[in-house]
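re: ur question from the group chat, yeah i did fold both. here u go
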Amino acid sequence: MAKDRLILLQPGFSDTKYPGEQFVCIDCLPVEGLLASDPARGAALQVERVPFEKPRQAVVEALGPDHQSLPVLILGDALAAPDDALQANGLRFVNDTRRILALLAERHGFFRVH
């Protein structure tokens, strides 16, 4: 996989626990904000938004059913994976929001978060 792949929850999802309400993912929101700050840089990534409901098929296919937490940055092979990246199904990934933001700055030139 050449490009880094970023998977986020689609904003405006519903949860059966709270009928009639719509939500955004509190962990995906900062990543969405960073992407919106520089759409041209975001084009260098493969960005996907998936529904809230599990199983989250795109994530399961990539990392397996035990790694459906979002957001997740699946690291491509164009750049070396950092030492703290996790591994599943032969892929390296990061699912901590602050670390994803840092890696988007390091690997793709986005603004750094302070």
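okk and heres the other one u asked abt
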Amino acid sequence: MTNPNSPITFACGATMKNRFMLAPLTNQQSHNNGQLSDDELKWLTMRAKGQFGLVMTCASHVQKVGKGFTGQLGIFSDELNAGHLKLTTNIKKYGSLAVIQLHHAGMRTPPELIDTNPVCPSNNKETNARGLTLEEVIQLREDFISAAIRAQKCGYNGVEVHGAHGYIISQFLASEINKRTDKYGGSLKNRSRLLFEIVDGIREKCGNEFLIGVRLSPEKYGMDIDEIKLICQWLINDGNIDFLDISLWDVFKIPYEEKYQKNTLLEHFSKLDFKKVKWTVAGKIYNAVDVQKVLDSGVDFVTIGTSAILHHNFPTLVVKDPTFNPIAIPVSEEYLINEGLGKKFIAYLKRWPGFIKS
């Protein structure tokens, strides 16, 4: 059995004190210009205090035009650095690794947030998104890399490149969305080129001691399990990432597609040769028994979302009690305020059926 309280040392040399990562949760509680808010600071600091070994921010956009939701934390300008410096100082004070998730929503950007059409690898009628020019693809790559450099200067231990959930990197990966005819479209090698250039650029600019992760999801949004597994193996073999974050929606589920249903999603990815790369999974890991089950399946550390909302100190509670179950939902707004959530985050959670008492 893997002890959830045992440390992990990544290839870059960074050490995570236990096996718990805070999921990069959308919360809409920062300022609309991308500045860190006091509510966001409190939410993330409490999770560090609650002993999450790695505290990851919400998706943080690397270009203004890549904004995915109101109240999103930004990392696209040096004008935002003061907030990030304050955040990393607070997280690291409690012995947690501070990691920011680098994000661009692409065609999933609501047009009213940016006063123009969203962008995409190629024109998309359904979302009225326009295709990026080759020059804009290069600029997008450079802005991801610049955001990582900025994050390092602000004290983050590392970054996670968001390549999941139908956002812009995922849009490049999807053959049904990416209709480009240049070197960023067509074959899987070409469709994944942007992701690899971003990762390689971050490693080159930020050095070998900077923690680099990539988030991928194997289903929905035009994703194919075999293609995502192949991309994972290429990333591992290249040696420029420290961890893979595989977002499965439900870590125990069978794939949607019939041809992949001989194995669970978790089993599909556990067959990869991870070499020196660590991996984590996310999706309905709710209680202590779930945590132990996932760790014992060969996963290096767990990514916790819902239960981290309900208990800022979920890691402490699980380590103390191997049968721990979170508080039953629905919970009151007052309860969530006491767990460090701001009013905007609570308003966002009201979209989740049965989560908050009416």
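fwiw on the second one: The chain has a mean pLDDT of 98. The radius of gyration is 19 Å. idk if thats what u expected
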